[in-house]
Design brief:
Elements: H1 3-25, H2 28-31, H3 34-69
Length: about 70
């Protein structure tokens, strides 16, 4: 595996941890971005938090699976 591939997999894991952390801590600035507002309008604040926790788990899983099977 090349260094750029390691970087992408680590980036997936870091972004997943960040997404979960922002959702658990219910950070206002995170949920007031344009991208998150769409989910807040559609699912409500708690629904958006659940969505971003699931997204974080999926990103971490993709990064870990990439390290294992790549």
């Amino acid at each position: 595996m090349q260094p750029s591939e390691y970087f992408i997999l680590v980036l997936f894991i870091v972004l997943g941890v960040f997404s979960i952390t922002a959702s658990v801590l219910n950070l206002d600035w995170y949920f007031q971005t344009d991208g998150a507002r769409i989910f807040v309008k559609r699912f409500g604040r708690n629904g958006a938090r659940i969505f971003y926790v699931l997204l974080g788990i999926a990103l971490i899983a993709c990064g870990v699976v990439g390290f294992i099977y790549w």
